[in-house]
Structure formats: structure tokens, C-alpha cells
Amino acid sequence: MDAFYAQFVRPGDLVFDIGAHVGDRVGSFRRLGARVVAVEPQPPCTRALRAIYGSDDGVTVVEAVCAEAAGRVAFNVNSANPTISTASTDFIRAADGAAGWEGERWDARIEVGSVTLDDLVAHHGVPAFVKIDVEGFEDAVLAGLSRPVPALSFEFTTIGREVARRCLRRATALGFHAFNLALGDTMALASPQWMSEARMAAHLRSLPYEVNSGDVYCRSARRPR
């Protein structure tokens, strides 16, 4: 994981981890020498993050949903599988009855505060990398960003390809020009060449349903290494 993220993160960088869960990526970013703002709405997860990183001045935990606007958001909890808890009701509808998602139940709803990426930039500075993994709410997260950053990633699922398409459009509007992807949790870029928005959109459309999920990586102007 560290070797993979090293192509996006350097010592001294600031990273936003949107959908931090219990911090496996946070640990990687810290080992790479980055400061991390970890945004996570689920109280059990934020308690875990604070237990693990509470004495680390390089980690700031924000208990909130990252969204298009600041305020309050209804958040749907999957108690048996909290990694797929989500603020997106469209995601829940898409998963209902879908192959590979059988038996998933979002059995509780909590109301939590929301922040935007612009809010986080205003409070913490401009990140070198933003990781977004929020179960079908990625487009809402990107809608709350109005300025480019050097690089970011967003999760996609094959039950919600239109969300990824909206994310690509938004990323392009923000100035990102090169795209790649990693399938599942492979931590490896699937293409030796970075793609245009159009090529990435076509690639996502062509992926077999069984791929299930992965992450799209977006790069703006190349940073000198």
C-alpha cells in the first residue's frame, strides 16, 4: 500500500482521507510522512481513529459526512458491514437485489454534520492528495470542491457507474486531465498509460459487472518528483 501511494504522496504533504473508516489508509499516509485529515461520520469508527491516532499531532479526525454543502445529513448504517454504510439512498436502491450484494441491510439511520472539501481546504490547507471512498456519495463530495488539487481518487462500483461518470465530469471541470484506475483492492494501476476523461468513461462502461468496485485516480498538472 505504501509503495502504491508514494506516487501521489510525499513527506510533508497534506492528505484528506474522505471515508477514513478505521484508518488503514491513514496509517499508510502517515508512514509516507504526510499530515492527514481523516473524515468519517460513524461514531464507532471515529472512536477507533481517535484511540489509534489521538496522540499523533499529524492526524486530525473530523466526525462528519463530506458533502456538497455544510449542514446536516441523514447517514444510513449497515451494522453488520459498516464499510458500506452510506449517505446515498441511490446506492442502497442499486444494491437491493443486486448480484454480490445479497443480504446487505442498512438497518439504522443517524443524522450527522456535513462539511465540504472547500471547508476542509479553508481550515487545513490545500491537500496534495484526496482519497474519496464513500459508497456512492463520491459525486456529492466532489461537488463541494471548487478548486483543483494535484491528485485525488474516488471509488466506483459497477452498480453505480453513473456516479463515476458524474465524478469524471466534475474532475475534468476542476482541471484534472489524466485518469487511471485500480480494480478492487489491488493497489496497482490497471493501465500503463494515463487516459483522457473520454477513454476512462468508456473503460468504466466496459468493465464486467463482476469487477464490483475499484478506484479512479485523477491527476492534474504533473508534480516534479
From TrEMBL:
GO MF terms, alphabetically ordered: methyltransferase activity
GO biological process, one term: methylation
Keyword vocabulary terms for this entry: Methyltransferase, Transferase
Matching Gene3D superfamilies: Vaccinia Virus protein VP39 (3.40.50.150)
Provenance organism: Micromonospora globbae
Domain Methyltransferase FkbM, residue spans: 17-148
Protein name, UniProt field: FkbM family methyltransferase
InterPro entries with a match to the protein in the record: FkbM_mtfrase, SAM-dependent_MTase, SAM-dependent_MTases_sf
